[in-house]
Design brief:
Elements lengths: L1 E8 L12 E8 L7 E9 L18 E8 L9 E4 L6 E4 L5 E3 L16 H14 L7 E4 L5 H12 L3 E6 L2 H9 L5 E4 L5 H8 L4 E6 L3 H10 E9 L20 H4 L3 E4 L9 H13 L7 E5 L4 H9 L6 E5 L3
Parallel strand pairs: 8-9, 8-11, 9-10, 11-12, 12-13, 14-15
Antiparallel strand pairs: 1-2, 3-4, 3-6, 3-15, 4-5, 5-7
């Protein structure tokens, strides 16, 4: 028997998440029974979409990569690496359901399997921009929160496809990274001036495709600048995550009528048939440096609450991770 620490939601926040809303608790973990495995987590993913799914009294959910330390399940060997969505805990017992074996590419760091090569970041970006938005070469593309793990991938895929790409982000440091490292044509700090005005200046030819992670003023500004038959792929609406019911305010929706704009929300289930193609394409792009990424890493389970809160406040550049072990 051993002790494992995990992060739990003490109470459902009203507005922004605060330190007192989270707690680190210890629980006993027994040896695995027949058909079970014991997993020690190595890396935890901190996704923006965790906020609307939080349930008071439960362990915070999220993607993770762990190593099988003990196995009594013939499908898993001790030492195997697995990905899962059982979240913010150091050690836990599993019956094998919800675990996916990882056979990492030796040329790539393990952490990319929680962002660029993960279902919840890279695949969302890939399927959203190519399948849902039906991106065409040479189009005018706007990506919100382009400094994050989803937006940065979507924006760079659009550049690979020969498009003019503008991204929004929350700091001047992220603006520099997007332009100098990620290779976007333009980027802007949405905190420095209204989104609509910045889009009008930076995208004089209008917007053919908007990859939306924010809703609110970003969606409003994009709708005002959309071209006829433009497409909006809605991946998330961060602006509403701290509001009751996840509400976000949009005032320019009528523009979608006159410009015949398509707005479509989506999940990975909409393009699961592209998974093998995604893994092949993304592995190649990462190997040859066509996809750049940045990671913000907090070390230790004790830092996990701060990582969650800081992500919600936009303190991360790229993917926010918590590293538990090497």
């Amino acid at each position: 028997m051993m002790l494992s620490r995990e992060v739990r939601l003490v109470r459902r926040p009203e507005g922004a998440l605060r330190p007192e809303d989270l707690a680190i608790v210890e629980r006993e973990v027994t040896d695995p029974a027949e058909g079970e495995v014991l997993i020690r987590n190595l890396l935890l993913s901190v996704p923006p979409a965790m906020n609307p799914r939080m349930i008071a009294g439960e362990t915070m959910a999220g993607g993770a990569i762990g190593r099988i330390e003990k196995s009594r399940n013939p499908s898993f060997l001790e030492g195997d690496l697995v990905s899962h969505r059982f979240g913010f805990r150091e050690v836990f017992i599993s019956d094998g359901k919800g675990l996916a074996l990882i056979r990492p590419d030796t040329d790539l760091p393990l952490a990319v399997y929680l962002h660029a090569l993960s279902e919840s970041s890279g695949f969302i970006a890939y399927g959203g921009i190519l399948h849902i938005a039906q991106l065409q070469e040479g189009e005018q593309v706007f990506v919100s929160t382009a400094g994050g793990s989803v937006g940065s991938i979507a924006a760079q895929i659009a550049k690979i496809k020969g498009c003019y790409v503008v991204g929004s982000t929350g700091s001047d440091e992220k603006v520099r990274w997007l332009k100098t490292e990620a290779g976007l044509d333009e980027a802007f700090n949405y905190k420095s001036a209204p989104v609509r005005g910045q889009l009008k200046t930076l995208m004089p030819r209008g917007i053919d495709v908007y990859f939306d992670n924010v809703g609110g003023d970003h969606l409003d500004g994009a709708l005002a600048q959309m071209n006829v038959l433009g497409r909006v792929a809605i991946s998330g609406m961060i602006s509403g995550y701290n509001e009751p019911g996840g509400r976000t305010v949009v005032r320019n929706l009528s523009n979608s009528i006159y410009r015949r704009v398509t707005l479509r929300g989506f999940t990975v289930a909409d393009f699961i048939h592209l998974k093998d193609q995604f893994e092949s394409d993304m592995t190649g792009w990462l190997r040859d440096g066509r996809i750049k990424y940045h990671e913000t890493i907090y070390d230790g389970i004790a830092k996990a609450p701060a990582a969650i809160i800081d992500l919600m406040g936009g303190a991360n550049l790229g993917k926010m991770l918590v590293r538990l072990a090497h």
